[in-house]
Amino acid sequence: MAHLLGAEALHFEYPTQEVLKSVTMGVSAGDRIGIVGRNGDGKSTLMKLLTGRLEPDSGQVTVRSDTTIGMLDQADTIDPDLSVGQAVVGDLAEYEWAGDAKIRDVIRGLVTDLNWETTVGSLSGGQRRRVALAKLLIGDWDILALDEPTNHLDVEGIAWLAEHVKRRWAQNAGGLLVITHDRWFLDEVCNQTWEVHDGIVEPFEGGYAAYVLQRVERDRMAAASEAKRQNILRKELAWLRRGAPARTSKPKFRVDAANQLISDVPPVRDAIELKRLAVARLGKDVVDIEHVSVSFGQRQVLSDITWRLGPGERTGILGANGAGKSTLLGLVTGDVEPTQGRVKHGKTVRIGMLDQQFSQLDKIGADRVREVLANTKTTFTIDGKDHTPAQLLERLGFRREHLSAKVQELSGGQKRRLQLLLLLLSEPNVIVLDEPTNDVDSDMLTAMEDLLDSWPGTLIVVSHDRYLLERVTDQQYAILGGKLRHVPGGVDEYLRLAQQHDQSHGTQPTQAGAKTEKKTKNANTLNGAARKAVQKEVSAIERKLEKHSQLIEQLQQQLATHDQSDYQGLQDLGTELGDVESEVEHLEQRWLELAEQLD
User: Fold this and answer.
1) What angle do CA 363, 364, 367 make, to 5 degrees?
2) What strands, in cross-sheet order, belong to the sheet with 299-309?
3) How far, in Å, are 548, 555, 581, 584 from residue 544 at the CA level?
4) Rounded CA gap, 462 and 442, in Å?
5) What is the DSSP string of 240-271?
6) Is 589 exposed, middle or buried (0-12, 13-18, 19+ CB in 10 A)?
7) CA nearest 222: which of 207, 256, 214?
8) What is the pLDDT of residue 21?
9) Would you tell me how many other CB atoms lie within 10 Å of the CB of residue 68?
10) How far apart are CA 413 and CA 196, in angstroms?
11) DSSP 3-state percent helix, strand, coil across the chain (nearest 5)
12) Quick one: pLDDT at residue 81?
């Protein structure tokens, strides 16, 4: 595979921190690399050095002369005076961008709900983020560097982005660098993982699941000080192997090794014991929502919803942005009054809410963390053991020196940890989590999940992080068209239902979407001669695909029966097989483009 980019002996430091110490890495064609690590350990710095946004203190980055690099930064850099259309497609004429299948797909996936003439400055932060991502993705890049691309995307948007990245290049072409806390996304698109920690970059083969296994193996041989973190990772690995077998079918690691590692690990949650404790704390009645509808002015958000929450249930709520998830949570917490129907809360119910705005920390912003903890209860029981608030905070990734910091001076991730701790210490028996993964790194997520595993009560989670939903909840519900429905098949079933709902209800496009559909129709209108030529090319491609399929089978058979000591012969066969598979991908992409014209 062609070498695209290389870094040799990179060193970079800030006045108070040495971020990277003599790091040497490379990116080759076909690499899909996820960059993980704790907040502040240098993930974004590494990406900026590799893409030329930052200059190293020493060492060098070399890029192949004809390689183009596109980067999505966390900073908002789009001119606020531009319209959405100008920001996304620039000076391209309408017929150019509307006649391009790739650009239309990006617009449909990210910005079809935005008015094409609206100025960027009037958009929300999440909408501007999607505009920036769309602007980047319509370009042709050999390497894409994406820093937190899933922020502000809903489940459908994240699924679309994963498919786009997988289809964007042929198998052994292009390069991807992505920083994200969305572990499902890492598993779905990445074939390598780089962990940034302690000034080094440690490579692992495969996506997040493979990284967890290899990191467990590394930590098993580490010093005793790593024991706490190792136990959490082993517990997560147990869930990966037992609860989500499809996820571990992709990484290239030995299943026997994984089974041996988790042979003595108990199930992630003792569901029966947690249920018993929850009933003892809550009784049989928690929250009953009966035939409830909610409207704001002329807009009906929820329609005739009936939902009975039981003690100990762990439920994830799915839905697109604006579907009514926060309204549903408001019904549960009592902050939203129904327009019709009634909401009944059990007499013993105590609800704790973790929201997106850190509202629980507003009144204590000037207090030091130590002072805040001094005002809470002295002990909290987890897994039958008493923990002090300081011990819990350490378990959530705080260091001792953070106890002296003022709450308002904490980073977003640290505030989220403190917010969760204060929520647990208030001893609610119903916890509602609204997008709890914002500003949180993967280490913190595993610690959060570990705490929630042993929490006895009713749990409701709204999140676009499907890994988290599958990890901490036992059932999922979805809001579709204002209705609430159970989705036993989880996120995959929801995505299917959402697509069917949009098609059957003829979702009205916005100005941008309408333009795209109109221009698409015009672009796809072929006269007799042109249509005949397209059909002829389609038939030719189908014949080639059939021949290539037979050739792939032959090459695979030759590889299986070839003399395994003939390394050169095996390499030649492997190279030929890769070339044929790459050609098949190009043919399939062309077939799809032509088929779209014939629709």
Assistant:
1) 150
2) 299-309, 287-296, 340-345
3) 6, 16, 12, 9
4) 18
5) HHHH-TTGGGSS-S-HHHHHHHTTTPPPS--H
6) middle
7) 214
8) 92
9) 12
10) 17
11) 50, 20, 30
12) 93
Of the candidates 222, 220, 227, the residue with the CA atom closest to the CA atom of residue 258:
220
Q: Are strands 17-28 and 69-72 parallel, antiparallel or unpaired?
A: unpaired
At position 248, the amino acid (one-letter code) is T
Q: How many other C-beta atoms are found inside a 10 Å radius of the C-beta of residue 330?
A: 18
Q: Provide the greatest CA pair distance for the chain.
A: 81
For tokens 């549960």, the residue is 332
Measured CA to CA, the distance from residue 185 to residue 464 in angstroms comes to 11
Structure tokens at 167: 């289809």
Q: Tell me how many degrees the CA angle 214-215-221 measures, rounded to the nearest 5.
A: 100
Compute the distance between CA of residue 425 and CA of residue 388 in angstroms, rounded to an integer. 10
Name the E strands within 369-493: 380-382, 385-387, 430-434, 458-462, 475-480, 483-486
DSSP one-letter code for 83: B
CA atoms within 13 A of residue 206's CA, in its CB half-sphere = 16
Residue that wins the pLDDT comparison between 165 and 220: 165
Numbers of helices and strands, H then E, in the chain: 21, 20
Tokens matching residue 519: 């221009």
DSSP string computed for 94-144? HHHHHT-HHHHHHHHHHTTTS-TTSBGGGS-HHHHHHHHHHHHHTS--SEE
Instruction: Decide: helix, strand or coil at residue 564.
Output: coil
Non-local CB neighbours of 7 within 8 Å, separated by 6+ positions: 23, 24, 25, 26, 49, 50, 59, 60, 61, 62
| CA 438 – CA 180 distance, rounded (Å) | 11
Q: How sure is the predictor about 468, in pLDDT bands with cuts at 50, 70 and 90?
A: confident
∠ Cα 101 77 117 (to 5°): 55
HSE toward the beta carbon, residue 565, CA cutoff 13 A: 0
| Predicted local confidence at residue 532, as pLDDT | 75
Helix (H, G, I), strand (E, B) or coil at 151: coil
Question: What stretches of 489-566 show up as alpha helix (H) in DSSP?
Answer: 490-505, 511-524, 528-561
d(CA 266, CA 282): 26
**Cα Rg of the chain (Å, integer):** 26
Query: How far is residue 432's CA from residue 177's CA, in Å, rounded to a whole number?
Result: 34
Output the six-digit token pair for 572. 């030649």
Structure tokens at 212: 């967890």
Q: Report the pLDDT value the prediction gives residue 283, as an integer from 0 to 100.
A: 56
Q: What is the DSSP letter of 507?
A: P
| C-alpha distance from residue 90 to each of 85, 143, 168, 510 (Å) | 7, 21, 21, 19
CA pair distance 35, 211, nearest whole angstrom: 11
Alpha carbons 19 and 393: distance in angstroms, whole number: 25
- Residue 447 · residue 397 · CB < 8 Å: yes
Residue whose structure tokens are 């913190």: 444
Q: Which stretch of 30-44, 330-344, 369-383 has the lowest confidence by average pLDDT?
A: 369-383
User: Which residues are within 8 A (CB) of 467 and not within 5 positions of it... i.e. 6 or more apart?
Assistant: 182, 183, 184, 187, 208
- In angstroms, how far is the first alpha carbon of the chain from the final one? 37
Token pair 């990445």: residue = 190
